[in-house]
Fold this sequence. Notes:
By secondary structure, this protein is mainly β. It has one helix spanning 69-75, and strands at 4-7, 27-30, 38-41, 46-50, 53-56, 61-66, 77-79, 84-86, 95-100, 106-109, 113-121. It has one helix and eleven strands; from the N terminus they run ββββββαβββββ.
Amino acid sequence: MEIGIHQLKHAQGMPLPERATPHSAGMDLRAAITENESVVLLPGDRFLLPTGLIMAIPEGFEGQIRPRSGLALKHGITVLNSPGTIDSDYRNEVMVLLINHGQEPFEIKRGDRIAQLLIATAPECSWRLVANPGDLGSTVRGLGGYGSTGV
Length: 151
């Protein structure tokens, strides 16, 4: 699948989203901040980081912005609204909302890999109202609620 992408002036010279390995599902998104500046996330802080990218996700698909596992494990840095969604009709700069759940300040510099982008199907659907929950079909879990499958 080919997706149209535009690099804004503040992202020029940076790589486009790319997979870290040939079989990676997600593509790394990078921080498009000024070369000589950085963003320091103190514990508990959140910050909306620019990627400098505008893209045209095809109709029937969405872009999902997900955390990078290494940042989460080593530093407690994650995507606050995970996964963030880029709708197919969105045509503005892709931004990444990070939060520091760690115990130490974390510095982000230009070009740092801050999140992953996954392109996923988002099928169109419509709703069919049913009169009773039993009309939805049976499953092994049935009407067991939140936490009903155990720990």
